[in-house]
Amino acid sequence: EYEGDRNSEGQRHGFGKARLPNGDTYEGEYVCGLRSGYGTYRFKNGALYTGNYLQNKKHGKGVFFYPDGSKYAGDWVHDQKQGYGEYLYANGDTYTGEWANNKRHGQGTYVYKDTGSKYVGCWVNGIQDGPAELIHLNHRFKGRFFSGKPLGHGKYIFDIGCEQRGEYKQPVQEKEEEEEEEEPTLPLEPIWKVSEITKITPWSPHDEELLGP
């Protein structure tokens, strides 16, 4: 069903309202039969998108409300979250920063609602990876992350006025002969090895010359 403007060739063109065969509805702008311009698309499952379209794809600025209560507001390119945007998760966590191909990618800040902690730094394909700072209520960690875990040299900075330098090392898994048939073991968590405790000094993960033990 369609109710709205058409061009001389009978295509949907201008402003209109449509009900799709699957029960979804769209109200907004069309160009030559395709959703293009600003519009609101309501999904039968309760999801809702309101924002810009280009040739039937979400493209430009837009807000997507998901059925679970989560929400994304930001840039879209050809139906993908791409550019800069903010995502509010169903559990109350938030991510604000760069996106590529629907994933957190680039610089961004993730805030954990339950603890108030936040990760400020690099992301690669949705995973914490690269120089970053993990900020807690009374201390923070500065260093590098790899595949979601801290790894390599870094430091903990405490609000009381001191810092603890050290290194996260990946423990080596002991293999036993009889374990061949067992389930694959989960990767071990990196272990923090302290090298020194000092008063607070300016330092960032980019200062490679200061990363020595």
Annotation keywords:
single chain; 213 residues; mainly beta; Histone H3 K4-specific methyltransferase SET7/9 N-terminal domain; 2 domains; 17-stranded antiparallel sheet; 17 strands; 0% helix; elongated
Largest sheet: 17 strands, antiparallel
Roughly how many Å is the radius of gyration? 24 Å
pLDDT < 50 stretches: 208-213
- Architecture of the largest domain, CATH level 2? Single Sheet
How many domains would you count in the coordinates?
Answer: 2
Shape: elongated
CATH class of the largest domain: Mainly Beta
Percent helix: under 10%
Please state roughly what percent of the residues sit in beta strands, choosing from under 5%, 5-15%, 15-25%, 25-35%, 35-45% or over 45%.
over 45%
Q: How many extended strands?
A: 17
- Ends: how far apart? 70 Å
- The total count of helices amounts to 0
- As for the CATH topology of the largest domain, it is Histone H3 K4-specific methyltransferase SET7/9 N-terminal domain
Please give the oligomerization state of what you see: single chain
**Structural class per helix/strand content?**
mainly beta
Mean pLDDT: 91
Element pattern in H and E:
EEEEEEEEEEEEEEEEE
